[in-house]
Amino acid sequence: MKRHRLTITGWAAAVSLIATAILGILITPQDVTQKEYSRFLYLHPPMAWVAYLAFGVAALSSVLYLWPRTRREAFDHLALASVEAGVLFTGLVLVTGSMWAEPVWGTYWVWDARLTATALMFVLFLGYLAFRRTGGTKQNIARRSAIVALISFIDVPIVHFSVLWWNTLHQGPSVLTPGLSAQGVHGSMAWTMLLSFVAFTLLFCWMVGRRTALERLRASAGGSELQDAIAARRAEGTSVEVGA
Amino acid sequence: MFRDAWAVFVKDLRIEAASRVGLWQVLPFAAIALLLFAFALGPSHRVLASGAAGVTWVGVVFATFLIVGRSQSIEAGAGISESQRLAGIDPAGVFLGKAGAVAVQLLAVEGLLGVGARLLLDFHCARWWLVIVASLLATIGLSAAGTLYGALVGATRARETLLPMLVLPVLVPVLIAAVRLWQAAGVAEGQGLAGWLSILGTFAVIYTAAGILFYGQVQEHS
Question: How confident is the model at residue A47 (pLDDT cuts 50, 70, 90)?
Fold first, then answer.
C-alpha cells in the first residue's frame, strides 16, 4: 500500500472509531434486558469479524506464497502481519466477551462450543507466531509458516459455525448470517454496529499496512547487511592477494 | 505412491521393532499416565468410571507426541531427506507410510489403555463396534495431523516444545469426539453419534489430504 493511502486509511480508522465511540456511548439507547452492557455490541462482534478477516487474509496470502507462480516475499509479510493482528483481535474478543459474560451470564467463562473454539483459534495462531521464531532460512520459515497458517485456518469456520452445529449458550451469529442481516439489531444500534465494523476493518487495514511495510524494511535491511558482509569478506581476500 | 508408502511403513515399523522404544518407553509412559490420572481422580468408582474415556484419550494424545517425535527422529539424520528425493520416492508416499506406522503404534497404545481403563477404571462397554470405529477414525486423524506437524517442526530448534504447542489445539476436536463416542459406547442407546463420527471422519480426511498435499513442500529445503 502506498504511504499516503496508508495515512488516509489510518485517519479514516481514527475518525470512524471516534464516531463509533460517540454513537455507541452517547447516542444509541441501551438494551431493555442487557442495559449498558449491550454497548459491547459495538466492540465484540466487529473485533470477531476482524479476527476472521485477518486469518482469512493470512490463509489466502499463504496459498499465494505456496503457489509457485504467485510466490512473492510480500505474501509472506502479509500473512505474518495479518496473523499478528488476528491474534491481537482474537485476544480482545476473548477479553471483551468475558467482560460482557460476567454480568449477563453470571460467569466470565463457560465451556461453550464457540468460546472453546475461539480460545483454540487464539492458541493455534499463537503457535504460528512461535513457529516463525524458531530459526532457519527465510524461504524455509516462509514456506513452513504458510502451511501452518493454512492448516490452522481450518479452525476458523469451526468457530463461526459452532453455534449452529452445537447447542451452545452463545447466541447465533449477529451479522454474518446467510442473508447478511443484523438479526435483532435495529435503528441507530444497527447503524452504529455497521459503522463499528467499518471502523475496525479500517484499523485492521492500517495495522497490517504498517506492519507489512516494517517487515519489508527489515527484510531489505537484513539483505543489505548480508551483502555488505559478503563484500567486506571479498575485499579482505583481495587485499591479502594483492599484498602477497 | 502406495508402493513408496508401503516401503516407508515397513521400514519405520522394523526400526521401531528393533529399537523396542515403543515397548519399553511409550507403552509404560501411557500406563503411567493412566495411573496418574486415576490417582488424581481419587478412589470413587463412579468418578473413575465416568472419567475413564477422557483419561484414556488424554493418555493417547500424550503418547502421540512421543511416537511422532520418534517417527521424525528417524528422518532427521544427515542427508536422509535428500537421499529420498534423489531416489525419487514420492513425498506423499513417505507421509502415508510414516502416518501408517504411527497409527499402528497408536492402536497398540489404545489397546493397552483400553484394557487398563476396563480393569482399573471400571470402563463399561455395551457397544464394541462403536469403540472400534471411533478408535480407528481418531487414530487416522491423530497420526495424520501428528505426522504433518512433526515434519513441520522437525527441522526447527525448539521442536520438543513447539510440537505440543502446535498440535494440542489441533487435536482437541479428535479428543472431544473420541471421548464422547467412548462414553456413548458405555450405554446401549445414544443420540448424536453420527455427528461425532462425522467430526472424526472429516478430521481424518482433511489432515490426510493436507499431509499428501504439503509433505513434499515441508521436506523441501528441510
Answer: very high
Q: Label residue A184 left, alpha or beta by phi (over 0 means left) and psi (-120 to 50 means alpha).
A: left
Contacts of B145 (CB under 8 A, 6+ apart): B167, B170, B171, B174, B203, B207
Judged by CB atoms closer than 8 Å, whether chains meet at A140 and B172 is answered as no
Beta bridge mates, A31: A35
**Would an 8 Å CB–CB cutoff place A68 in contact with chain B?**
no
Answer yes or no: are the C-beta atoms of B114 and B175 closer than 8 Å: no
- Name the average pLDDT for chain B: 85
Amino acid at position B188, single letter: A
| Contact partners, residue B55, CB within 8 Å, separation at least 6 | B34, B37, B38, B41, B117, B121
State whether ipTM is beyond 0.85.
no
Which candidate from A124, A150, A165 shows the least CB-CB separation from B169?
A124
The most confident of A137-141, A187-191, A196-200, A236-240, by mean pLDDT: A196-200
CB pairs under 8 A between A and B: 63
Residues A41 and A37: their CA atoms lie apart, in Å, by: 8
C-alpha cell at A27: 447516542
CA–CA separation, A64 and B216 (whole Å):
17
H-only helix segments in A36-137: 44-66, 73-105, 113-132
Nearest chain B residue to A116 by CA: give it.
Answer: B172
The answer to whether residue A204 scores a pLDDT higher than 90 is yes
Domains and CATH numbers, chain A: 3-28+37-175+186-243 (1.20.120)
Lowest mean pLDDT among A16-20, A63-67, B169-173: B169-173
Say how far apart CA B219 and CA B143 lie, in whole Å: 18
Q: How far apart are CA B217 and CA B211, in angstroms?
A: 10
- Rounded-to-integer distance, Cα B153 and Cα B42, Å: 37
